[in-house]
Amino acid sequence: MSLIHYTRCAVCLGKHIHPVLDAKDHTVSESVFSIWHCKDCSFRFTQDIPSIENIGTYYQSTNYISHSNTKKGIVNKLYHLVRNYTLGTKARLLQKVTGLEKGNLLDIGAGTGAFANTMKQKGWNVTALEPDAIARNEAQKNYGLELELPARLFEFGPNSFDAISMWHVIEHVHDLVAYMRQLNKVIRDKGRLIIAVPNYTAADAATYGKYWAAYDVPRHLHHFSPSSMEIMGDLHGFRLVATKAMWFDAYYVAMLSEQYKNGRPHLIRALWQGLKSNFKAISNEKKCSSVIYIFEKKLFIGPIEFQKE
Ligand SMILES: [Zn+2]
Predict the structure, then answer these.
(1) Distance 118 CA to ligand 1 centre (A)
(2) For residue 179, how far is its CA from the centre of ligand 1 (angstroms)?
(3) For residue 62, what is the domain's CATH number?
(4) Which of 52, 101, 181, 294 is most buried as measured by Cβ atoms within 10 A of its Cβ?
(5) Other CB atoms closer than 10 Å to residue 304's CB: what's the count?
(6) Mean pLDDT for each consecutive 10-residue tract of the chain (309 residues)?
(7) How far, in Å, from the CA of 241 to the mean position of ligand 1?
């Protein structure tokens, strides 16, 4: 299998990149991947990644599901409980930052369509993209939503959307530059781009090191610090207007990380680590385990041309 080896940072194109840690794929392959760091913009990325054609096998987690025990069950149950709560929070946030009760939304990486459906219920005109066929079927079955393939993104015309959301999605996208350029094209002037990703500069990431579950190699190709995210937006015609903490992620990530580090999920220890991490983020939401970045499309973008090597 041919692997993609980066010789430059995908965010700032800097060449000062070096390995910082080796992380293991705990959910599917047990393979080890090297995570590299860019000295210029502090972006991190998984090095020597499978190509877009080959990464599908790393998403086949039937082992993980069939071997799940009751403790994994607790993690999963909590995850779904929290997800239902956060759906409402996300919907209100989107309405607030766009200043719109209703509008045109593009939700990329819609999964089984829960967020797309929530926005549709609120009267939004929602276009949702999802690569996974099983997820698309679920969305159709559960909500009657017709999700489309991500390649559709490159067919929309300019100024098509008031808002674009990517909830824990962009870290999975192979061609960051092509995506960012296209997002800027299809969103209207002053439109809002909402990107949620894990934050490796959070305290829980430091606590767990290579066991930090949100590295999730090789499915997570990119690992953002708040400043590298801001730089990426800026280089592609977006201005960072706000950041929001995702408080529940610290607990969920800590529970998985406990399992990876010690072979079993330790509920109390995970809650404690999650709490400690969130405590540090109270005064600075950019320290939270996962961060929501809200960008505004800039009215004028400079003549920046990205070239692939
Ligand atoms: Zn960089």
Answers:
(1) 36
(2) 17
(3) 3.40.50
(4) 294
(5) 10
(6) 92 97 95 98 98 90 45 69 87 97 97 96 97 94 96 97 97 96 96 98 96 97 98 97 94 93 89 94 94 92 55
(7) 21
